[in-house]
Amino acid sequence: MPLIEGMDYSSIVIQPVIGDIMKVSWRDLPTVLTKDELLDKAYARARKAADRVDDSDRVFRVRKQLNRMLQTASDILSTYLMDTVNQWPSLDQSPQFDVSMIDACVGCDDYRHHLSMLQWASNQITKIATQNSKKIIRTARIELMHEARREAYGRISSLVGRIGPSLEWLGESREILKRLPSIDQLSPCIVVCGAPNVGKSAFISALSSGKMEVNHYPFTTKRIHLGHFTFRRLQYQMVDTPGLLDRPMEKRNDIEMQAISALENLGSLVLFLIDESEKCGTSIEEQHNLLEEILELLAGTTVMIISTKADLHEQQPENWELVKESEQDYLESGEEQYTELPLLIDKNGYITISALENVGMEALKMEITRIVKDNTPIDPMTLPEGWHRSA
Ligand SMILES: Nc1nc2c(ncn2[C@@H]2O[C@H](COP(=O)(O)OP(=O)(O)OP(=O)(O)O)[C@@H](O)[C@H]2O)c(=O)[nH]1
Ligand SMILES: [Mg+2]
User: Fold this and answer.
1) Which of 123, 304, 306, 343 is most buried (most C-beta within 10 Å)?
2) What spacing in Å lies between the alpha carbon of 242 and ligand 2's midpoint?
3) Atom number, ligand 1, closest to the C-alpha of residue 354
4) Would you call 257 helix, strand, or coil by DSSP?
């Protein structure tokens, strides 16, 4: 297998994929209301609900109205708070990648704390409403009914005031988290890394069948690309790592290290792209140093080295024409006909590709799927959904 020479593959660790892990779509999390917005919404609805109540007996009418008011306000508030808690991915059930990303971007402890504040407030609000509702029911004096309603509103408002900072924190965190790539834990994921400008994004774009998703890691201004391709009905994802796995270790901060460890938990395979033409602006030597560091960093994952921009190489790869023709035939006759394509190999023995001229790409795609398949657990119980293994 054309992987890295001298690497000990017996130590490769493949993360089992658990069947019921859900895909978290950060982008679908609804906006989080501020404390004032939330109270305004609840009290306005409560007022309307109270207006709809009618009874010819004044005492009955006021009692019903105030009770309806209190119940409506409490329902709206506690439902909203619990819905928020439930909509936000639970850390215990989230895939490791998401947990590491949450930790890197906003902090898991804060995440837990603020969500539990909402849960607590929701319970308290229900309690206050029940207590004061009883007071309203038990008295026949209208002024005491009003007092019980006012007291409940006062306590509820101050509770919501107390969770104001949590609501704000969640609102801000949502803005941060929604910029993260939404990675489907059930499909294999190929992590693409290498020095800046080596052609990571061009590679993903050329291999992707659909539109690429463009996102950011919150700590870098660089755009990350998430692409997909389908091979024999199975979907593969590719994610690039700008600003993350592209410079020497000592320049990385804690947040970046955590994001890297998240990548480690994510990748079925890591592709390290090298630009031998050095057009990227990083010397071959420096690119090799980076590779050494990445091998150390991602010691448990299979790393495959790919030389990019084959069209710029001084010496055209010997089998350029053969690969080009084979790939054309393959694309015309349909993938089912082929089980193998020749990989484009450069003068230094690296697998190479040209994203620009689209040569070597189909062959590499096939090779990637083969390696990912080899790395997948054999136990059918641990196979991700969509994976089938013939007996
Ligand atoms: N000739 C040629 N140029 C390429 C090829 N692939 C990428 N490039 C060029 O190389 C430059 C960098 O490509 P990108 O895909 O943006 O590189 P990157 O690694 O994503 O860069 P960063 O995200 O900034 O780290 C662009 O000008 C591309 O057009 C290729 O196969 N052949
Ligand atoms: Mg890029």
Assistant:
1) 306
2) 6
3) 31
4) helix
